[in-house]
Structures are given as C-alpha cells and as structure tokens.
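Researcher: Please generate the 3D structure of the following complex. Treat every line as part of one assembly.
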Amino acid sequence: MSQPDTKFGEYGGQYVPEALMPAIEELTDAYRRYVLNNEAGFMDEFSERIEDFGGRPTPLQRAEQLSSRYGVDVYLKREDLLHGGAHKLNNALGQVLLAKYMGKERIIAETGAGQHGTATAMAAAHLDMPCEIYMGRRDINRQRPNVFRMRLNGAEVNPVDIGRGTLKEAISETMRDWATTVETTHYVIGSVVGPAPFPAMVRDFHAVISEEIRSQTAAKLGCLPGSVVACAGGGSNTMGAFAEFLGEDDVDLYAVEAGGSSLTVDEEAGVAPHSASLSTGEEGVLHGARTKLLQDRHGQIMESHSVSSGLDYSGVGPQLSHLVDEERVTPVDVGDDDALEAFHRLSQDEGIIPALETAHAFGFLETTLGPDGDGSVEFEEPVVVNVSGRGDKDLEAAIEETEARELENAPDMEVFE
Amino acid sequence: MPYLAAGDPDFESSLEYVEALAAGGADVIELGLPFSEPIAEGPTIQQAVVRSLEGGMTPERFFEFVAALDVDVPLVCMTYYNLIYQYGDEPVRSFVERAAEVGIEGVVVPDLPAEEADLLREACDEFGLDLIFIVAPTTAGDRLDRIMERVSGYVYVQARLGVTGARESLSDHTEETLARLEEYDVPKAVGFGISTGEHAASVVEAGADGVIVGSALIEIIAEGHETDDSTAAVAERIESLARELKAGAIEGGQRRPRPERT
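Model: Done. Output below.
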C-alpha cells in the first residue's frame, strides 16, 4: 500500500495547533486510502469528474510566434482552458470530493488571486457542499471579478482585514476557522503548502498536468520535454507540471518566482518587495510546514509583494524547497515589469491572455532568450511552459499597472467614450 | 495564571502590567513573545501582537523584558515555533538556553504538536525548563497518551475548539476534557474563553488546578490604550481582575466535593 510523504528532506512536517492534529490524522488516513490506493474507486470518480466537469485533458499547443521569436520549440500546456480558467480546479475538485467521502459537511478555503476560491466554490456547488472563502481585503479589491464568481456559485466570501490583507493573512484566518469547526469542516488548502499531508496531496491532484504533458509530447513529438517552465508562488501548478518528471534527470525544471519590484528587502518595515522565497528565502516554519520563507532576522514573517496576487506569498511548498536544495529544480525570478510586458506579448502574439502569475513564466523566456535577453540559460528543447491560468480576472489590474509604467508593447488602453 | 503579550502596548507599561498581575495573586504568569502569524489567537490577542511588534518587541527585547521584571512568580514563555527556531546560532537550543538564563521556567508553543517537539524537549531537559503541551477537546486515545508522556510542568487544557478570546459563557467541553485527563498526575490548567471570577470558580470546581486568562486582561489594556488612560490606572484594573480570578479559583476549590476518606 502506498504511504503519504510527510517530509521532503528536512522540509514539511506538521506544525499546527493540537486541536487540528486529530483532523490531520484523519485526513492523512483518507488521503492514503482514497487517493493513493483508490479505495471505493475514489480516483476513478475523480478522473471522470475532472474530465466531464473540468474539461480534461487540456491541450498541449505549439506556440508558433514564441518559437520563432526565441529560436527554440515552445509548447504551451493550456491549463487556462480548464473549467474556471486555471489549473486550480484539479485540486479543488479532488479535495471537495475527498471531503464528501470523509463525511464532512462544510468546505472552507483561502484564496489569494481568487482562482483557488473560485475553483473551490465551483467544485462545492458541483458536489452540493456549503462553502466559505476567506480572502484578504486588498486582494478582494485587486480581483473583483473572482469575488463575484465565487458568490454566483453560492459561496460566502469573508474579507480578512488584519495585516496587509493578502494570501498570508487569508491562510491564517482559514486555519482559525478550521480550528473552530474541525469536526464538521474540511479545509481545502489551495497550494502545495501547509501541514502534511497537504503538500503531497495537492501535488497528486495536480500531477495530472505533467502526466498529460508526458503523453502529449510522446504522441506529438516522440520525446519527453527538454525543459518545463512554470511560475511559482506557493507552487501548485509548478509541482503539478513537474511531478511526473522528477525522476527524469534529462528534463530541466524551472520555477519562476515573482521578483516584484526589487529583490532587496526593507527589514525595518518588515517588507520584501518580492515573493521569491525559493531564491532568497531562509528555512523556517510557517502555516504548518518547515520550508523556505521570507522572514526577518528574528523569524518574523515579512510581507511579500508581487503585481500578481497569486504569487504574493512569503512561503513556498516544502517539496519545492527540497528540490531546489537538491538542485533538481532551478529557481529563477522575473519582476513586475517583465511580467507585464510578457502579459501583453502573449496576448498579442499568441492570442492568449494569460494570468499575471502565468505571465512570469513567459517573462523568463524573454529575459533569457529575447532580443535583450541575457542568454543566461540554454534551454533543452522542446520547452513546455505551463499556462497555469487565463488573465480575465486580471484585466483591471493589468490595465492600471500598464498605464503606470508606459510599457512599450502595451496597446492603447484609453477607454472609448 | 494570567497571560499577557510582553511589550503590549510598550515595554515600560507592559512591565507594570505584569507586575500588577503578580500583585493581584497570579501563581504563574504566561508571557507571550509576539509572532507575526499567530494562527491560534483570536482578534484580541492578534491586536496585542500588532501593538507589541509595532512597539519594537523582538526575541532579544523579550528576554531583556523578562530580566527587567520584578516579580516573584514562575514565568512561562508562550510563542510560536519559528521564533524559537531562528534565535541564535543553534536552532532551538540557543533560545532555550537564553530563556533559562533570564529566569523563564517553561515554554508553551501553540503550533508545535508533540510529534515535532523532540528538539525542544531535548533543549528543555538540558536547561531545566518545563515543556507545556496543549490538550484540545479533540485530543483523545493514543494522541493523549503521547502528549502526556512528553509534558512537564502542567498541561494546558484547551476549553473549547477555536481560537483564544474572552467569552460570555463556559464551554461544555471543559468537563469532558478534564474527565479524560483525570488519570494523569499532572496539574491541569484550563484556558480559552475564561474571563470572570465565576468562570474561574466553575472550572476549578470541575477539577482544574488552574485557570489561564489572557484575552479578558488584554481587553483592559486595549481599552486603556485607546482612551489614553494612565499606565497606573490600567495596572490597577488589571490587578483587580487578577484578584477576582484568583478569588474565583479559590472559591471553586472550596466548592469541590471533598474526596472520601478511606
């Protein structure tokens, strides 16, 4: 019988209040039985639902313009075409279904960009479970379309006002709810973070991304990908795109973090103007796991920053931290400006408006291979970029941030009267 | 057993508040070292954490705070694991060594379940500190045994599910949890939601050896801070609530049915 991963080297573990530990033991048991060992046909039901409701498999598409711009074969894994417009549904549907198998009566979740909240609200509506979402006040203002979508699907959205009002605070507040309601409620954590078994379980629900990439490159090109590129905040689409290739040493794996406005840190103010915990973070304990964190020298967690709410987090999944230490995954970072420029390029050249999170992955191609690229990376081909989500939710933020920067490749955003 | 966040709202006032607790009859004082992500705390203590951090509290300042206290009551440090882990050159050990040096007698770490506590247990043994664990209403069976094997000093009995915060009424979980713990020969201190002398009396009557009160005391500080009251006036109110709680606890002990002599 397969057993759950609880630690990744020194990372991971279960650093949570005692009140939650019995629920985490119960969840570990359910994960082992239903997910890892397909008890009661759980994984069969999951696969059927993620196909019929979610629209899997998602295509692997050759990016004609990017391939000729960069002189390498670039393929796009179109997770933006999954129901809801992002990869997030894989995990949300998996966990809500698991909660049902466990006999839980209520679903709670945190959300940053609102993509996980939206996916959870859809999955909960689909499986007829009441659902509450915690979202930082600042993110609510940045991602209003997603707030409406959650409410349309019947979820209650609870604003979180403490701190800076982003993902970190939303996770803390959801954990507080869970500590109160743990007997009846399942917490659908939205990334490969948190106490074990969440990092492994969330990875497993998203592993379908890399399983499909493997069979699609085999069918189309008769080979494995040479490189896989994915953006990384908490790291759920990253681990989903990498999982199947971890044992394939010929496949290079790049995790693109948000470089924000700068990689320097204002320790006095407790602010890191970026979210690059893999590249610059130090080992510590946050939200239930030991992992790489943005923290000050005392161990207080610093506020992160990114133009994209979904990458704006001070921690990262523990397995990614371990894979970076093992030099299996290469962490790189792309700043706000380059991400926005890439957002426009993909929209204009390929006809795909990406999420601002996803745009970071494309920014990495431009900053290395583009006309002004630094040539610092030699990509093994074919290069597969995970298009983790579509950008509809970001239009307001993207227009505002674009106007503030006068980007060269941005279209005229003046509104017709 | 009162709890305050050290340095709330500032270093000097906080010293006076802790001393007021001792004057009010506290038998043990739990001092919070504020962490930026207090996931086990309700709004009252979250705000205290914010005030204290804004006032410049750091782990080193915390130890200076403890050293500067003029009280003759055992002090227990309550904080989150990352601060213990990051302090000094040797993860965990440096923190515990320094804590022992300034006279801390025990530690409680709300985000450290028994499974992850080996390193801290070792350091506490080395420097003679108690390691207090929390037992929740959901803790039972093997888990309870495992925790009770590792606990020292006292066990922190969480009276209800959820986060810290003063409540109007007591939880029904309290008696159940205390009954589960009866067979273990460790002092039991009940916390989460206790705010009045009457609460304290009922909890002690139900078999607790102590009551832990945090948010109700911190609300006094928060109010005083908002209305700009003098430190002395706030300290007086804190001392008076401490007295009420102590009297309640004693009263509860007297109400307890006397064990039959055989």
